[in-house]
Amino acid sequence: MKKIGYLCTYVLEEILHAAGFLPVRIMPDTTPPTRADAHLQSYTCCFARGCLDLALAGKLNDLAGVVFTHTCDTMQGLADIWREVFPHLFVETIVTPVTLNSPHAQQYLVAELRRFTAALEKHFDVRVTDEALRASIRVYNARRRALADFYARRAEFSAVEWFDVMNRALTSPPEAVGGQWSAVSTQQSKIENQKSKIGVVLLGATIDEPTLPQILDDLGARIVADDFCNGARYFDTLVAEDGDPIEALAARELARAACPCKHRALDNRIERVLKLVKEHRADGVIFYHKKFCDPHAWDYPPLAAALDREKIPHLLLEVEQVAPPGQTRVRVEAFLEMLSA
Amino acid sequence: MSERRYKKLKTAPQLKTLLERHYLAAKYFHPGKPIAWVTSGAPVEIVRALDLFPVYPENYGALCGARGASAELCQVAEARGYSPDLCAYARSSVGMMNDAKRAPLGGLPRPDVLITCGNICGTVLKWYEAAARHYGAPLFILDTPFIHADDGEPTPHAIAYVAAQLEEMIAFLEKQTRRKLAREKLFNVLMLSIEAVNLWREVREMCRARPSPLNAPDLFLNMAPIVTLRGTKECVEFYRALKDEVAERVAHKVSALPEEKYRLLWDNIAIWHHLYKFYNHFVDYGACFVVDTYTGGWAMRMNEQGDPIEGLARTYTQVFLNQSLQVRARDMIDLVQRFDVDGFVMHSNRSCKPYSVGQYDIRRIVTEQTGKPGLIIEADHCDPRAYDDAAIRARIQMFMEGLQARG
C-alpha cells in the first residue's frame, strides 16, 4: 500500500485511505534539523524544521505525497516550501476553516473536501467512491474507539507506553491498533500502585519524543489526560457512519476538540482544559510547548490565569527538538514535589 | 532616531496633521461613533458605511515602534506570560492594554467591537481574542481561506464562504451598534476606497522613473492613510496631493536620494524602530529602495463592477499575504523587472512568520529568474531588541560591495 504523509490531525485520513493509500503521520526524529535551515528560519518551530529535514534527508522517500491543512502561519509556509522542494510529489493543503462556529463553515468545508478529493483522484488516477469512504470511516472510527478504550484504561499503563501506543498508532495501518495496545497491556505488571500517584494533564501541540513521559514515569507521576494533536485530540469525536460521507467528515472536523489555531468560542479551549482537569481529578497541569509555536504561546496566558483562578498548579516547559533531560527533570521534580506537598 | 538624509516631501505636514487628527479623534472626539478595532486587511468599508470609528492596532504598533515605546510595552506583555517570540505589534498592543501610561498618545481607545480578518496572518486571531477577553468586547472573525493555487485565484467556494460571512458581519455590527447599513452608503465608501487605492498604486508606479522620486521610508510613512483612512474623502484628497507632488518630482527628474546609484526592492514590513538609521546605511551607497512588496499590499485592484459584497470578498481574500510563496515570488519578479532594480533586500522578520517563512526559497527563485542578487537581513518590525546594527551594517556592506563589483 502506498503511503501519504500528513502533519496534522485535521487531515482527513479517511479520504486518503478510501483512495487506496495508507495515511501516516510524519513525526520528526531526534537528529538536529540542519538541512531544513536552507528553507526555514531559526525562529520557526522544531516540528516544522524537523519534518522538512526528514524529507530532505531522504527519510520520507516512501511517501507518494504529503497533505497539509490550514493551521498556523509556519505550516502554511511549509506547505508551499514542500511543493517547491519536491515538485514531483502530490503536495496539497486542505484549507480548513478557522472559525469552526461559523454557520457557513460546514458548507465551505464540504466543497473544499470535494475539491481536495478531486485533486487526489486526478493526480493518482484513482476513484474515491462513497462506498469506499464509508468503509474507511468505519475503519477509522474503530481505531478511534480502540484508542479511547486505551485512554480509559491509561491508569494501567506507564507514560512511555502511552507515548509509544499513540505514536505507533498514527504511523500504522488503522486496522492494527487493537492488537497493538493489547500487546502493550501484557507488559503492564511493572506499573504498581498507580492510583496513589500524582496525576497531571499535559497540554501542547505535539509530543515528538519520550523524554518527558520517561521523567514522569521515573518520578512516579501519571498522565491522566492530554490535549495533544497526536494525543487525545486525534480520536476525539466519531464520524457519522450514515448519510453523505463527505458531509459527515466535515461535520466531525468542525465538532472535534479544537486546536488553538482554530476558533470555536472565545473561551472554548479554556473551558475544555478546566473540564479535563476536573474530570480526571488532576493535581496539576504541564504545558509542554514548542519554542516558536505561536498559537500555543498565545493560549498560555489566558489558560494560566484560568488555572490560577481555580487554584490548579501548572508548569510551563518550552522545548526545542528534544526536551533537555537534566533540566526538564529538575523542573518537573520540583513541580511534582509541590503538588504532593 | 537618526535624521533622514534624503529629500523631504512637501505633503509631509499634511500627512502629519491627517494622522494626528485621526488619533486624537479616535481618543477624544468621535461623537456618537462606536470604536471598532480592525486589522489592516479587514474590509473597513463596511465599518465606515455603518458610521463606526475604525482604529488600527497594527498601525498603532508601528507608531509604538517608531516612537521608541515598543520595547517597554513588549516587556509589559512578557511579564504577563506572553512569549517574546510572538509578534511585537501584538505584544506592544497587549502592553498598551495593560499599562496605557507607557503607551504613546495614552493608548488606543477601548473597542466597542473588534473585527479581525485572517487574510494577513494567524496572529490577528489570537491577538483579537486576547483583546476581546481584556475589554469584554464582542469579536467578529472574518475567515478568508488561504490561496495555495499557483494562479493566485481563490476557489469559488472560498468566495461564497467569505461573501456569506460579510453578510453575517454586517448583521453582527448592526446588532452590536444598533444601526442599519445603507447599501448606497457602502457603495459610496467603496468608491472612495477604490479611488484612494488607485491613487496609491499610481504613486508607487511613478517610482519606476529614474531617478526614483521616493525611497522606501517615504512609502512606509505615506502608506498610513491608505491603511487607516481608506474609504474617506480626506484619504483621497491626501493621495491626490501626494500624487501631484510625486508627479512633479518625476517631471523635473528630482531624485529622492542626493544621487541614485543603485535601485533596490524591499521585501517585508519596515523596521519601524530604526527607520532612518537602517535605510541610511543604504543611502551611504547611493542605493534607493524604489519599490517594496509591503506597501503594495494596499494597492490592490478592487472590483468596481458587480455585487459589492462579492467584490469585497474577492479583494480581501486575494491580498498578497493570503497568497502562496510561488505567487509572491512571481509578483516580486514582476516588480524587479518593471522597476528595473539592481537587487533586492528581504527583511526576515521574526515578528511576522507568514511574510517571512518561504523567503529563502523566494530569494532563490527570484535570483534564478532575474539574475539579481538578494540580501536577507534578520530583524524585527517592532522589537528593537532583535536589531543588531553592527551585524546588519556588515551584511549591507558585503552586499553593496557585491553590487559595486558587478558594475
Number of DSSP helical runs of chain A: 13
Identify the quaternary structure here. heterodimer
Report the count of strand segments of chain A: 8
Strands side by side in the biggest sheet of chain B: 2-1-3-4
**What overall form of chain A do the CA principal axes indicate?**
globular
Main sheet of chain A, how many strands, which sense, barrel?
4 strands, parallel
Radius of gyration of chain A: 20 Å
Unreliable runs of chain B = none
CATH topology of the domain at 192-340 in chain A: Rossmann fold
Number of helices of chain B: 17
Quote the distance from N terminus to C terminus of chain A: 53 Å
Share of helix among residues of chain B?
A: 40-55%
- Cα-based radius of gyration of chain B, to the nearest Å: 20 Å
What is the helix content of chain A?
40-55%
Order of helices and strands of chain B: HEHEHHHEHEHHHHHEHEHHEHHEH
Reading off the top of the CATH hierarchy, the class of the domain at 192-340 in chain A is best stated as Alpha Beta
What structural category do the secondary elements of chain A indicate? alpha/beta
Description of the structure:
The complex is a heterodimer of chains A (341) and B (407). With 341 residues, chain A is of the alpha/beta class. Chain A is built from 13 helices and eight strands. In chain A, strand 3, helix 3 and strand 4 form a beta-alpha-beta unit. In chain A, helix 4 packs across helix 10 and helix 8 packs across helix 13. Chain B has 407 residues and is of the alpha/beta class. Helices cover 52% and strands 10% of the residues of chain B. Chain B contains 17 helices and eight strands. In chain B, helix 3 crosses helix 5 and helix 8 packs parallel to helix 11. The chains are: A alpha/beta (341), B alpha/beta (407).
Short précis:
The complex is a heterodimer of chains A (341) and B (407). Chain A has 341 residues and is of the alpha/beta class.
